Amino acid sequence: MSSVAPVIVWHRADLRLHDHPALLAATAKNTTVIPVFILDPALLGPPYSGNNRVQFLYANLHALAERYSAIGSRLVVRFGQPAVQLTLLVQESQAQAVYALRSHEPAGRERDLVVAKALQTTGIALDLFDGDTIIEPGLVRTAGGTGYRVFTPFWRAWSSLAWPHPGPALSYLTAHTLASATIPMPHSTVTLPMAGEQAAIAQMQRFLRDQGRFYSESRDFMAQNATSQLSSYLHLGILGPRQAAAAAAAAANSQWLRQLCWRDFYRHLLWDEPRLATEAFKLAWNSFPWRDHTQNNSTAASDFLAWQTGQTGYPIIDAAMCQLIGTGWMHNRARMLVASFLTKHLLIDWRAGEAWFNQHLLDGDLANNNGGWQWTAGCGVDAAPYFRVFNPLTQGEKFDSDGDYIARYLPELAVLAPEARHQPSMLSRVACNYPQPIIELSQGRERFLAVAKQHLSGAMV
Ligand SMILES: Cc1cc2nc3c(=O)[nH]c(=O)nc-3n(C[C@H](O)[C@H](O)[C@H](O)COP(=O)(O)OP(=O)(O)OC[C@H]3O[C@@H](n4cnc5c(N)ncnc54)[C@H](O)[C@@H]3O)c2cc1C
What distances in angstroms separate CA 346 from CA 333, 337, 342, one per listed residue? Predict the structure, then answer.
């Protein structure tokens, strides 16, 4: 231990040693750095997190602990409320400060205020650094000084700014003597991605070297593994966003960089408008007359259940929902299709779909999930106009033309000829033990358009 008071680095959604401004600032103090993670009960279950994500968190805490051991230190894990646990840790270690990366979620910001206040009573500051986004929220502004509400001009302005270079990974830390609780062992019903920042970086390098070259043309085809599948790593900060952006720039992959910019866009938006965590951006949608799926024995409730369990009778929708339940991940095009089907054909509140995604996705991420649902429903920023209703049949035939995605996640339909998989006949449905459609597409579409038109006419949508 150094004679100078140590600095605590509090990890949250930043389970890495590379591209970590708070960790670098702490080491620059030339003193002992104490890395900490607090297992806050509020993070370990619904509504914040589903089981898949909690298990992935545990697996990555083990990986982070190994990384710290390899460079001479130890990750200190404690259970409880962050304000209480950090105050105790400061007293135990006589730390001079607590450093962390800034959170952009409303709940995270509130938690940080509570922690800062609690630490103040011991004369210690909570110092926050930016590292969860490529460019810090608040820095990409219109000429009028406001935040952007449309992606393309945001992307243009964002691209014209320089972002801080990702910092190097640490290779050595001084040992400390603080005790740690045991990290639970992960037990998941889905196959978890390999844990740890080294696995994430290797996957990114493989993606950029191999599939990355075909990303623009292939990314919408659901059966192809043509996207990076790095979202779960980015969500928990196992992969640093600036590290990813720098790699995309080095590979001259501007389409992939643009997708990373969407992630920044939704974080900037949530930073400016925390109300979006629970409300539609377009206010008229907050009183939209959705069907009430919470009423037991209603047809809306049974429609919602059919959607959740992949039993709608529309193979592309059901395959996507089975991918979600079976793997904890879903292809982006499929996310758009199932979100459109729920909100439009079934007229069920986007927030119910958002919550179901959040329970099952390994990458369930407030900013991206909320942004994606609002975009698809038509109530968000830069959203598709409400009257654009995806047709699951034509979309499926276009982006899964051989029905391979359907066959993979609905094996009962794999026996059908590829061209029959999108619209099995009534008889083949019976033979394959696959349900009849729960709604006729044109009927669902017309119902939605009529309700939306009536509700939104005259309103500022
Ligand atoms: C209804 C709906 C819900 C969604 N929920 C989530 C969610 O909970 N968590 C999540 O990370 N993404 C979500 N997305 C965005 C997108 O579907 C995923 O980020 C993407 O499919 C992840 O796969 P990938 O890592 O292979 O992406 P790639 O195509 O390789 O893109 C690289 C990274 O860019 C970011 N990104 C890509 N597309 C988007 C996008 N449209 N919006 C914001 N960021 C993007 C992600 O961090 C992604 O990992 C949602 C989209 C929709 C339409």
Answer: 19, 12, 5
203-251 confidence digits (pLDDT tens): 999 999 999 999 999 999 999 989 999 999 999 999 999 999 999 999 9
Helical residues (DSSP H) of 224-349, grouped into ranges: 231-235, 241-250, 254-272, 299-308, 315-327, 332-340
Distance 386 CA to ligand 1 centre (A): 21
Residue 368 tokens, joined: 């991206």
CB of 363 shorter than 6 A to ligand 1: yes
Could you tell me which of 112, 106, 105, 141 has the C-alpha nearest to residue 10?
A: 112
What percent of the chain lies above the pLDDT cut of 70? 98
Both tokens of 395, joined, read 């979309």
Q: Each residue of 341-399: pLDDT tens digit?
A: 999 999 999 999 999 999 999 999 999 999 999 999 999 997 778 888 999 999 999 99
| Phi then psi dihedrals of residue 108, to 5 deg | -65, -40
Q: Which helix (H) or strand (E) holds 197?
A: helix 197-209
Q: Is 329 in the pocket of ligand 1 (CB under 6 A)?
A: no
Place of tokens 């401004």: 21
Report the alpha-carbon distance of residue 151 to residue 258 in Å, rounded.
10
Ligand 1 atom with the smallest distance to the CA of 231 is 49
Ranges of beta strands (E only) in 58-149 are 76-79, 97-101, 125-129
What's the burial of 406, exposed, middle or buried (CB within 10 Å: 0-12/13-18/19+)? buried
